[in-house]
Amino acid sequence: MSTAQELERTIGQDVYDVDGQKVGTAANLYASDLSGEPEWVTVRTGLFGNKETFVPLAGAHAEQDGLHVGAHKDAIKDAPRIDDQGHLSEAEAAELYRHYNLQSTSRNTRSTDGLGMATGDGVPADQQQNAGMKHARADHGREEVVRSEERLRAGTETVETGRVRLHKHVVTEEQQVTVPVSHEEVRVVREPIEHGRPGAEIAPEDREVTLHEERPVVAKETVPVEKVGLDTKTVRDEQQVREQVRKEQVDVVDADLDEKTPRKH
Predict the structure, then answer these.
(1) In sequence order, which residues have a C-beta less than 8 Å from that of residue 50 and are 6 or more positions away?
(2) Cβ proximity of 59 and 146 under 8 Å
(3) Is the pTM of this model over 0.85?
(4) Which of these, 113, 115, 117, lies nearest to 147 by C-alpha position?
(5) Per-residue pLDDT at 142
(6) Range with the largest mean pLDDT of 43-57, 113-127, 224-238, 244-258
(7) CATH number of 4-158
(8) CA 152 and chain centroid, separation
(9) In the chain, where are the structural domains located?
(10) Are 70 and 58 spatial neighbours (Cβ–Cβ below 8 Å)?
(11) Using alpha carbons only, what angle is made at residue 63 by residues 57 and 69, rounded to the nearest 5 degrees?
């Protein structure tokens, strides 16, 4: 496993499971109250990174791309949901050990305070040496803790909201068109005959004349007249999202008083 300083530098970086799949972002390191060595890391998962899951540091190592842990992604996803409150109780630690099939040591289970948080979220590596709820003595004899808080980060994802399709159907309508037509009619034309020959016979006689007319003829043909298509455009809008965030507060507890009645500083 990497050193504590190397692990501290992975805070805020990506976390990968044993198969190299990204599972989230490193948020906090938890160290043993007795040994002071980091034993757990909380990993932010979910769409907005608003879920934190405890992952064991056994077999974990820091790389340039982030923190690689020894657990599988499914095990991390199904891990018990324990709030990141700066301290793990013995019962919470035991539940995590059982989930990851790890054997807890007597050093951990005997501790009355369980595990203490070693680093704060988003604090640079050179400031994380004194971070979290586990006190470290400064060079000038004063006790320091680094206070952390959650900040809301929102993003977007593209989801399918509906489908639109083009459907073509047939309608019947009546059209009227005027067609010019012609027809033949009979009229009597009389022309006088001059110098006619005498002796013409007088008798009945018939002659026929064939008459013609034009009649409208209807024919239909199909021709393309128009193209109809669908296009999409992006409309920008704004939506508000709400989420609860947590922040740490520092209390000053007098060792001579009951620890359950801390004084605010």
Answers:
(1) 44, 243
(2) no
(3) no
(4) 117
(5) 60
(6) 224-238
(7) 3.90.50.10
(8) 17
(9) 4-158
(10) yes
(11) 25
* pLDDT tens for each residue of 197-215: 777 788 898 889 999 999 9
Least Cα distance to 47 among 241, 233, 251 occurs for 241
Those residues whose C-beta lies under 8 Å from the C-beta of residue 133, and which sit 6 or more positions away, are 86, 87, 116, 117, 145
Long-range CB pairs of 134-142 (<8 Å, 24+ gap) are 134/31, 134/33, 134/36
d(CA 183, CA 181): 7
Return the ∠ at Cα 133 (arms to 84 and 258), rounded to 5°. 105
Do the Cβ atoms of 148 and 157 come closer than 8 Å? no
CA distances to 76, 145, 256 from 123, rounded to whole Å, are 24, 12, 32
Residue count (the chain):
265
256, burial (CB in 10 Å: exposed 0-12, middle 13-18, buried 19+):
exposed
111: tokens are 């501790």
